[in-house]
Amino acid sequence: MKLFTTNIMLIAVAACSTLIMACSDNSPIATTENAPALESKKVKNVILMIGDGMGVQQVGLLEEYVRRAPNSILPSTVTGLQQIADNGRIGLSMTAPMGANPSLVVDSACSASQLATGMGSISEAIGLDDNGNKVETILEKAKKMGKATGLVTDTRITHATPAAFGAHQPHRSFENEIAEDLLTTQVDVLLGGGARHWLPQDTADKKSAYALALGGNTSVIKKSKRQDSRNLMQEAKDAGYTLAFDKTQLANANGPKLLGLFDDSAMNDGIEYSNCKAGAVSEKCSQEPSLTQMTMKALDILSQDQDGFFLMIEGGQIDWAGHVNDAGWLLHEMLKFDEAVAAVYQWVKQRGDTLLVVTADHETGGFGFSYHNHNIPAPVKLLGDGMKDKDYQPQFNFGALSILDKIHQQSQSFYDIYSQVNSDWNFTASTPAEWKTAVNASLHIDFNINDADAKNIAARTAVPEAKIVASHKYLSATEIPLINDFSDFYVYGSSDQGVLISRAIASKQNVVWATGTHTAAPVPVYAYGPSAIIDKFSTMQHHVEVGQKLIEALIIE
User: Strands, DSSP E only, in 424-530?
Assistant: First the structure.
């Protein structure tokens, strides 16, 4: 176990060291070809991009694949993040809850609230300070200044991260109330999933009527999570919002106010999106816009405001892949997010009036590549004069670059594997054969599991009565996957089945995971814009300070 922990720490330290070196006084000035002068101390626009769960380890996975995968399908070996690093600044930020109720590890709601307000907050609360008071966010401050505002995500628009910028609630689970807050705040552009929190309780009974009233699209009108008769989509339409439910409607929408809800819950995951780009045919491929498409539409609308704008863009499913310890899904989410980053960078670099900051709310999963003692490479002859006629044979398996391609070739996320085994994610009666079939159909053939692996994945255990919390969303479960180590750090019941899959294939992928929750590892902060502003981000800081710097750049005269 000591070796496992040490490898995780070394990965993080090495990546952090690389970032800090880039933060030095010798790093390049933030200028680009044909770009305006970047020396002002205040900007007209602020764009904040949040890779939910994206620590330096996740960035490392992205960069390893893009730069070194032998059969990468990408046209370039330079990521969007790297373009910002080359022409802007990089720093690191700590993320833990600060203030009167501090703790070591943060959740997305608290972290986003700290970024949004520049003040300490509390775990799982939305837009509140460390004592539970409502605090004006950067989005609300921008709105007071007459600026346009927007929120974009590939999860639900009412999910924790976007919610923290435009809502104020005691708990992140109050998504119906968050939807109401977003309308009350009058965020100009709202794009993402989560239609189920915007339609009244009787949606299933009146689906056709709602579809007719709201533009004729039924693809996202499936069910409701509301407990009342409020139709927030209709309320938004009455308040002057254009509504969009698919790619075509999004493309045709005109500002200045736009509500786009493109899925009942979360939008296409990274693997689904990659499959769509490769030519897969499905309703979601034909209907759902990409994170990049939503982002560019938001920029198109918001930039028409002469006073400027604030825009937050979230790549939200990086976190979800980390929670289930799914390296293949994680890679595709990083690629999807980075595609949006690259597009925004290209937009911003033509201007001198915009600050772009890319960061994460926290790291999820404790991901890392690691070496091990299986399949030790065979000895080979090297011609170098330092070998002294000795064969070259490492003592351990350090991982072949071909692994990167194999990870990328995963065809389904662990979530979809779950659904294949049981559509309700009730695995009480699931069999090893069902898990073996689903896993092996989704992963590269070199990552196939055997009968013994499948038996371990299917194994269940009863929860001791003392650990059952009857009213808890997750801890009320009486039976959970049988996880033999660090089981206290896998807290989501049947959703944690993924750790058993990842452990079964760990040595084949050279991948290790530390947890099914979040870690306190510092996260990267990429900044591009006027040098006088972005220099401030090139340091070790805390998210409260990052939030303050964002507000200062946009608000302070």
Answer: 460-462, 479-481, 511-512, 518-519, 523-528
